[in-house]
Structures are given as structure tokens and as C-alpha cells.
Amino acid sequence: MSLFKNPWGSNEKTNFRNLFFGVDNENDPDRPKVHENVTLGVSYKFRSKPPQIGKNALLRSNTVIYNDVEIGNDFQTGHGVLVREKTTIGDKVLIGTNTVIEGHCDIGSNISIQSNVYIPKNTLIEDYVFLGPCSCFTNDRYPLRSDYKLEGPIIRKGASVGANSTFLSGIEVGEGAMVAAGAIVTRDIPPYYLAIGAPAKHKPLPKHFKKLNQI
User: Fold this and answer.
1) For a disulfide at 77, which of 81, 98, 128, 154, Cβ 3.0-4.6 Å?
2) Strand pairing of 178-179 and 193-196?
3) Cα(27)–Cα(75) distance, integer angstroms
4) What pTM, to 2 d.p., does this model score?
5) Residue 19 reports pLDDT greater than 80
């Protein structure tokens, strides 16, 4: 049986399987698979609640999940993933190695998030979305220069985001839209459009790309 780091600071490792997953039978085929050095239940405030994770999870080494996180079934992480507080995640979601989800995020189902993706506070990601490696989203238009409401991205259903793309705060990526690798996105992308270049220009997707992702 896998061991978890004690989120309350003790050097002693404690088994928290039942607390977080509600599983008490090692023969249960849906029981989670947890690698070494996984930290579950980081307390960020008094009376925060342990994270809840559905069936058939796979948490790879050095994953850290804060309190007040709710995750559905068939969840997988790469190594070194961070999921902060007040985040909800649906079913069949993959989060790649070294990806950071900063909290207060709403993430749907059937989603593939590749390695080294940065997802800031106040992000909404709908179902069937693909986020390529090293894509970077922001939520602060004027860092440290003025008071500004933090606005993360809105990624609508079935959108695909290419590797190494960068987004200004508050950008909405329309349903079924695609973002080319390396694009710098400075304005909203309409549904079923392609954003390409730096700064990104928009053009309609070819007919054969006007469909949702199969994830």
C-alpha cells in the first residue's frame, strides 16, 4: 500500500488512502495508484477540508494537492504537479509533469493538459480541451502597477492550444478554436477560428478542422 506525506508537517509518513479516496479494500479494482512522495491535503487556512478524489486515480511522484479540491474519476498526474485550493476537476483529466494550477479554477472533463503548463487563479476550462506543453496563461494585466481584478482565461469546449503559446489575462478561446504553437494571444478567439503568430492573428479554421477534440 502506497504512503503519503503527512500534510501537517510531521516527518512520519501516514496512510491517508481512506481519508482522500474513500477506499478501504486493497482488492478494489478502482482503488488509486499513488507513487512515492505524493502530498495530499495541504492546509492553507483553518478548517479547510481534505481534497476528494474519485475512482481509479493515478498520482505520480511529487504531486501536491491542496485542501478544498474536488476531483472526479480517472484522474492522472505526471510528476511534480501542483493543484491549489478551491479547484474543481471533472472526470478523465490528465495533468502533465510540472504543471501548476494556481487555485480557484474550474476544470471540466475529458481534458488533456500536457507538461509544464501554467494555469493561473480564476481560470475556466470546459470539456474536451487540449493544452499543449509549456502553454502559459496569465491573469494580471498590469503586474504590481495597479489594482486589477485577476482574470484567468476561459477555454471553451473542444479548443486546442499549441505548445509554447502565451495568453494575456482574461482571454476567451472559443469553442473548437485552435491556437498555433508559439502564438501570443492578445484578444479573444472566436469559435472555430485559428490564432497564429505574435501577436496572434485570427482566421477561420478549414472545414475539416471544424470539430471537437476526441479525448
Assistant:
1) 81
2) parallel
3) 19
4) 0.88
5) no
User: What ranges make up the beta strands (E) of 72-158?
Assistant: 76-77, 82-83, 87-89, 93-95, 100-101, 106-107, 111-113, 118-119, 124-125, 130-131, 136-137, 154-155
Residue whose grid cell is 485570427:
202
Q: CB under 8 Å to 147, separation ≥6 — which residues? A: none
Cell numbers at 13, concatenated = 509518513
| Dist CA 209 CA 123 (whole Å) | 25
Q: Are the beta carbons of 68 and 85 closer than 8 angstroms?
A: yes
pLDDT band at 23 (very low <50, low <70, confident <90, very high): low
Predicted confidence (pLDDT) at residue 119 exceeds the cutoff of 60: yes
Q: What are phi and psi of 88, to 5 degrees?
A: -115, 140
Strands (E) in 9-109, as ranges, are: 33-34, 38-42, 52-53, 58-59, 64-66, 69-71, 76-77, 82-83, 87-89, 93-95, 100-101, 106-107
C-alpha cell at 41: 491535503
In order of start, what are the domains of the chain with their CATH numbers? 38-113 (2.160.10.10), 120-209 (2.160.10.10)
